[in-house]
Design brief:
The chain has one domain: Glycerol-3-phosphate (1)-acyltransferase (3-Layer(aba) Sandwich). It has a seven-stranded mixed sheet, sandwiched between helices. The protein has eight helices and seven strands; from the N terminus they run H-H-E-E-H-E-H-E-H-E-H-E-H-E-H. With about 250 residues, it is α/β, with parallel strands linked by helices. Helix content is about 45%, strand content about 15%.
Length: about 250
């Protein structure tokens, strides 16, 4: 039975999911690029990205069960902090969380045709890992965006996808939330690794879960409190995901 299921997954992925995702990405990135000519705020591009994300989930035969959205005030800005186990994580959050938000993406993604054009024009920010000074500058840029543009920011503070187990959160998301003076919102993603494992191009289909947990207010906190806030975020996500953060896995 497992062999037959695997064959079905492979055929479905080869004939429907993979070509569909490529075409959807080209189509929606083109629409995003055209819309950016008139809309420099990135708001329209974000709405296009939400449609693209829903298309990806549908093409992958993925259902997303969402809880806790009612905890968000759509008039406020937040730093959204989620665990990262799969390339399906970003589409899951984009399709489910009804906020205007931007996110940090690997610097190399900005050079990919269509995807990179969208990321740049929509106002997303590159992750800079090998230059501490540039990295700090980019975090401050994120905090400034939250304060001045009224949008939210999504971060995956593990530093990359994890193949088996959560890694400890890095403190950048907590630092940005404190500097911007906005709440930090832990988000727990479940079974995205099972849908699209790290190192695999085979989307298996099935159900994933996205849990929006209680926002943590940062009023009165200073950058010295970033470690405490970071630990709170990590502990709350880990408790829902059911994994113990361990530093043994390399970045990816």
């Amino acid at each position: 039975m497992e062999f037959q299921t695997l064959i079905v997954w492979k055929l479905r992925s080869a004939l429907i999911t993979a070509p569909g995702i490529i075409l959807a990405t080209i189509l929606m990135a083109t629409i995003s690029l055209i819309s950016s000519i008139r809309d420099r705020t990135g708001f329209t591009q974000h709405r296009v990205a939400r449609v693209w994300s829903r298309m990806l989930l549908a093409l992958g035969f993925v259902r997303c069960r969402v809880t806790g959205i009612e905890k968000l005030d759509l008039r406020r800005s937040y730093v959204l902090v989620a665990n990262h186990a799969s390339y399906m994580d970003t589409p899951a959050v984009l399709s489910s969380v009804p906020l205007q938000f931007r996110f940090y993406a690997k610097k190399g993604l900005f050079s990919i045709p269509f995807m990179g054009w969208h990321l740049t024009r929509a106002g997303h920010l590159p992750v800079i890992r090998d230059d501490p000074r540039a990295s700090l500058k980019m975090m401050l840029e994120g905090a400034k965006m939250l304060r001045e543009r009224g949008v939210s920011l999504l971060l995956f503070p593990e530093g990359g996808r994890t193949p088996k187990q959560m890694r400890p959160f890095r403190e950048g998301a907590a630092y940005i939330a404190i500097k911007a003076g906005v709440p930090a919102v832990p988000i727990a993603l479940i079974n995205t690794r099972g849908i699209l494992p790290m190192g695999s191009a085979l989307v298996r289909g099935g159900e994933i879960e996205l849990h929006v947990l209680d926002p943590i207010e940062t009023t009165g906190m200073t950058p010295r409190d970033r470690g405490r806030l970071n630990q709170m975020l990590q502990d709350r996500v880990a408790a829902i995901v059911g994994e113990t953060p361990t530093p043994e896995f390399a970045d990816a």
